[in-house]
Amino acid sequence: MGKLTNISGKEAAKAFGRAGWEVVGQVGSHLVLSKPSQRANLSIPQHKELSVGTLRSLIRAAGMTVDEFLGLL
Questions:
Q1: CA-closest candidate to residue 59, choices 68, 46, 50
Q2: Mean per-residue pLDDT for 42-58?
Q3: Reported pTM
Q4: Contact predicate 47/29, CB 8 Å
Q5: Residue 15's closest CA among 62, 57, 51, 52?
Q6: SS3 sequence of the chain
Q7: Per-residue confidence band for 1, with pLDDT thresholds at 50, 70 and 90
């Protein structure tokens, strides 16, 4: 398993975009992403650095593994 580091919300949104997630809107400082084949939405804070726990939670909600996500960066 790869090691997660602190990345920005913008970088995370781009990586999820490469996996097929699309931006459907923004609520405050959070981007909301959706994917037709997934039931859940992702809410990505647009901070300079996302904590590792927040990033891991987003990856889990997207139905991906850490290695799959790191391959999209």
A1: 68
A2: 92
A3: 0.87
A4: yes
A5: 62
A6: CCCCCCCCHHHHHHHHHHCCCEEEEEECCEEEEECCCCCCCEEEECCCCCCHHHHHHHHHHCCCCHHHHHHHC
A7: low
Tell which CATH architecture fits domain 9-72: 2-Layer Sandwich (3.30)
Query: How far is the C-alpha of 51 from the C-alpha of 30, rounded, in Å?
Result: 15
List, in sequence order, every residue forming a beta bridge with 26; answer none if it has no partner. Answer: 31
Q: Contact at 8 Å (CB) between 2 and 67? A: yes
- Give how far Cα 55 sits from Cα of 8, 21, 24, 36, 49, Å: 10, 15, 19, 21, 10
Give yes or no for a contact between 57 and 65, defined as CB atoms under 8 angstroms apart.
no
- Tell me the two tokens of residue 38: 């997934």
